[in-house]
Design goal:
Elements lengths: L20 H8 L3 E5 L2 E4 L1 H20 L3 E2 L5 E3 H7 L1 H4 L5 E4 L5 E4 L4 H11 L8 E10 L14 E11 L2 H21 L4 E5 L9 E8 L5 E6 L17 H12 L3 E3 L5 H5 L6 E16 L3 H4 L2 E3 L5 E3 L1 E7 L1 H11 L1 E2 L2 E2 L10 E5 L5 H16 L4 E4 L5 H11 L3 E5 L1 H4 L3 E6 L5 E5 H19 L2
Length: about 450
């Protein structure tokens, strides 16, 4: 992409209402625009990252055996009357009437609708286990939308729903999602720690939240340092092996890890003082096991091997890709701007032309741009006539993993400069060596974080 042809409406200063780094940086880098309180348009740079986050989430859902569907944003109130949640959900639910004065709502979550789909088609244990997910916008009329897309009113959620014939297989389904979440956040280049959680209005008896540690997080977390050091299973993990998957979950849930909502001082005081991590965290994922809470009242039953009909056992599993984008920035930035994880950076490299209009520099940049594209790299070429200082500041602000800096002085010796955004390290290399360096990096990223 050439910057002169892109739409990157950067701001010199963040609007005063932006209180935390991710919100300030997303506005300054032209990633999102607020349209109403807690409601945002996603501009090209922001959308680029969110789509990459979604894709990682999707690949890891699919790997764990979940199947993608797409349910609508608008739901009928009648479904929610069946579960009893229409009245319980309160003012967070945006209620709407259509022209026939039918009660509708903008979905805050989809347990009822997926249960309706299930009961319409699935009658026998032979069709189980089943896990269906979608990635769709939700609306919750939050009392205090704040911190930009971190706590929006309209936000994107991946929500999966598992269906099983009995408690034991339903727990196995829950564990598969648990492991899939470990892999998802690992591929997103962040550490997200699973913690025992409260089930809230979703209900149920087993629940974990996944939290990214960051000073601006809204939850206080208490966890044993051991949990932070555990290895994440690689892509070869066998989701067909229930015992293996349960063993991984055991390892990850053995040590104390809870948020303020579930904190227990007595258990906490048993953790050796040197191992106590007391920090703040951002909830990016939340999984629930709730058995027959929805299937029972909604009549979603299946016939078991013994010919008996029983309500199906369910769980639900959420990740908020829009919040994740902000959380990645909270976890990765410095005074100059964003530092994207390699796996979801909007572009791989910023190609900076220091003397647009100089024939040799323009030609070298054009050649580098083409070579990078041919090698499967995704460059953003700053071909504008802005001053060098402005170009460097912009490149640092938008936080691409690499910058390739090309000017007449270096070119006189056949050289360009390459800078790694995360460390600030710079190196002078031949054009060929620079491209090779980037290609090798790309391969490593694929190997470590790819699908
Ligand atoms: P919170 O405690 O932060 O209000 P929640 O517990 O109500 O969230 P869940 O119902 O567990 O949220 O939703 C699943 C996921 O959806 C969350 O883990 C988060 O990633 C995302 N999410 C929930 N609410 C919001 C929101 N207002 N803005 C952005 N993302 C959200
Ligand atoms: Mg939650």
């Amino acid at each position: 992409m050439k910057l002169s042809q892109y739409f990157l409406p950067v701001l010199k200063e963040a609007p005063r209402e932006a209180e935390i780094a991710s919100h300030q940086l997303m506005l300054r880098a032209g990633m999102v625009r607020q349209q109403s309180a807690g409601i945002y348009s996603w501009l090209p740079l922001g959308l680029n990252v969110m789509r990459k986050v979604e894709q990682v989430v999707r690949e890891e859902q699919n790997r764990a055996g979940a199947i993608e569907v797409l349910m609508p944003t608008i739901q009928s109130a009648d479904l929610w009357r069946e579960s009893g949640r229409y009245d319980d959900y309160g003012r967070e639910m945006l209620r709407i009437q259509d022209r026939h004065e039918r009660d509708m709502l903008f979905g805050p979550t989809n347990e009822e609708m997926i249960t309706d789909i299930f009961r319409a088609y699935v009658k026998s244990y032979k069709n189980l286990p089943l896990n269906l997910y979608h990635i769709q916008w939700k609306f919750r009329d939050e009392v205090r939308p704040r911190f930009g897309v971190m706590r929006g009113r309209e936000f994107l959620m991946k929500d999966a729903y598992s269906f099983d014939i009995d408690e034991a297989s339903s727990r196995a389904a829950y564990y598969r999602m648990f492991v899939s979440y470990l892999r998802t956040f690992d591929r997103l280049g962040v550490k997200a720690v699973p913690m025992r959680a409260d089930t809230g209005p979703i209900g149920g008896d087993l629940s974990h939240e996944f939290l990214i540690l960051a000073d601006t997080g809204e939850s206080e977390v208490f966890c044993h340092a051991d949990t932070m050091k555990l290895p994440v299973p690689d892509r070869t993990v066998d989701y067909g092996d229930d015992a293996l998957i349960a063993g991984i979950v055991d390892d990850w849930t053995r040590a104390y890890a809870r948020t303020d909502e579930m904190h227990d001082e007595a258990l906490w005081s048993a953790v050796p003082e040197g191992d106590r991590v007391n920090a703040r965290g951002i909830e990016v994922g939340h999984i629930f096991h709730f058995g027959t809470k929805y299937s029972q009242p909604m009549g979603a039953t299946v016939t078991g091997p013994d010919g008996k009909e029983t309500p199906v056992f369910m769980g639900s599993y959420g990740i908020g890709p829009s919040r994740v984008v902000a959380a990645l920035i909270e976890a990765g930035h410095d005074d100059d701007g964003i530092i994207w994880p390699d796996s979801v950076a909007p572009f791989d490299v910023g190609l900076i032309n220091l003397r647009v209009g100089d024939q040799a520099t323009d030609a070298a940049c054009a050649a580098l741009y083409e070579q990078m594209a041919n090698a499967g790299l995704d460059p953003l070429y700053d071909d504008t006539d802005n001053r060098a200082g402005g170009k460097f500041a912009l490149a640092d602000l938008i936080g691409l993993p690499w910058q390739l800096i090309v000017g007449p002085r270096g070119l006189a010796n056949g050289e360009v400069e390459i800078k790694k955004r995360a460390s600030g390290e710079r190196e002078t290399l031949s054009m060929e060596a620079a491209i090779n360096r980037l290609v090798a990096w790309r391969e490593q990223v694929k190997e470590r974080f790819g699908g």
